[in-house]
Design goal:
Blueprint (H helix, E strand, L loop, with lengths): L1 H19 L1 E6 L6 E6 L10 E6 L6 H14 L6 E7 L42 H15 L5 E7 L1 H9 L11 E7 L11 E5 L2 E5 L26 H10 L2 E6 L18 H4 L5 H16 L5 E4 L6 H4 L3 H7 L2
Parallel strand pairs: 3-4, 3-5, 5-6, 6-9, 9-10
Antiparallel strand pairs: 1-2, 2-4, 7-8
InterPro entries: AB_hydrolase_fold
Protein name: Alpha/beta hydrolase
Keywords: Signal
Length: 326
């Protein structure tokens, strides 16, 4: 009951916070257009030492993602020194990926399609920029605007988490003196760096080549075969970069079924995705097991009890705050 009341209060806060937030735009490199983002603190505030950048999901609900990040910062007691930011990837046709209250694309904006931004792909137009590179540029812009900024946490939820998890292996180095880390929350599918996949066995997983693998199951964006030419690294480099990055994971404890709270109808059910597990929670646990067994890295994955597939439940939770504000 307490969690339901809390969720209701957060939902009521979203419209108020989004309306009060500062919606900005900045010019991306190489005449690629402008990118919009919500921000919680005035430009130049020297008290800002950390930034939390929250990547929205498929409906491009940037204000909702911003509100969840702001609520997490408030509950963690970090509003005084933390800038909360939520970029908005604009699309050419928003009929199938829009959220009420979000601004439409304006002349001069960088634009993607509903599916291309979450795959990190280049924007449309004569001066394209990948969604990954646009995120790199946002980090550089924030460091330029806030002279005291020393750490940036990039957090993604759902489709935003999928995009962010894929970007880790291809991200640019952050500005000198700035630490960069990632929190991946409830992605629908994962980027693997080897052809094995986790197979549930008892209370854990074993790594095996799929017995009945579908064609392309290890190709981009599920694996590193056939990487597109616009990516700035090959498969071997991507594997090493991902293993070396600072990454933590969050999963909703109820995001493990076809029930209403898991938003199962929008879950990727392609053959390549289903080889990663039946639901988001199982896919996350399987990827963690893969990392430990194959990449030989130890990372944290916290499961949030009582949370389905909702950003306003997962990010501000005690588990979410412990990773977002490490």
């Amino acid at each position: 009951m307490k969690r339901c009341v809390y969720l209701f209060a957060v939902l009521l806060t979203v419209a108020h916070v989004a309306g009060a937030a500062d919606l900005r735009r900045f010019d991306l490199p190489d005449e690629a257009g402008a990118l919009h983002y919500y921000a919680s603190r005035p430009v130049g505030e020297r008290s800002v030492q950390a930034a939390l950048v929250v990547i929205h999901g498929h409906p491009r609900d940037a204000s909702r993602s911003f509100a969840a990040g702001l609520q997490a910062a408030r509950m963690a007691g970090r509003l005084a020194d933390t800038l909360v930011v939520a970029p908005l990837y604009q699309v050419e046709d928003a009929r199938h990926c829009s959220s009420p209250g979000e601004p439409s694309a304006q002349p001069g904006d960088a634009r993607w399609t509903c599916g291309s931004w979450l795959a990190g792909e280049p924007s449309l137009g004569t001066h394209p920029i990948s969604a990954f590179a646009a995120l790199d540029a946002l980090v550089v812009e924030l460091v330029r605007q806030y002279p005291g900024l020393r750490s940036v946490t990039l957090a993604g939820f759902s489709a935003g988490a999928q995009m962010l998890q894929h970007s880790v292996a291809f991200a640019a180095e952050p500005p000198v003196g700035v630490g960069l880390r990632y929190v991946i929350a409830d992605p629908g599918s994962w980027l693997y760096f080897d052809p094995v996949r986790p197979v549930a066995q008892g209370s854990g997983f074993v790594m095996e080549l799929p017995a009945q693998a579908c064609d392309g199951y290890n190709a981009w964006k599920y694996g590193t075969d056939a990487l597109p030419a616009w990516l700035p690294a090959d498969a071997g480099q991507a594997r090493m970069r991902y293993a070396a990055a600072r990454v933590d994971y969050l999963e909703g404890g109820l995001d493990n079924s076809a029930g209403q709270g898991a938003f199962y109808p929008v879950l990727d059910k392609s053959c390549a995705a289903m080889l990663q597990g039946p639901f988001r929670l199982q896919r996350g646990l399987g990827f963690l097991a893969y990392e430990q067994a194959v990449l030989k890295v130890q990372r944290r994955m916290l499961v949030v009890p009582g949370c389905g597939h909702r950003v306003e439940c997962v990010l501000p939770s005690a588990e979410g705050r412990s990773l977002l504000f490490d």
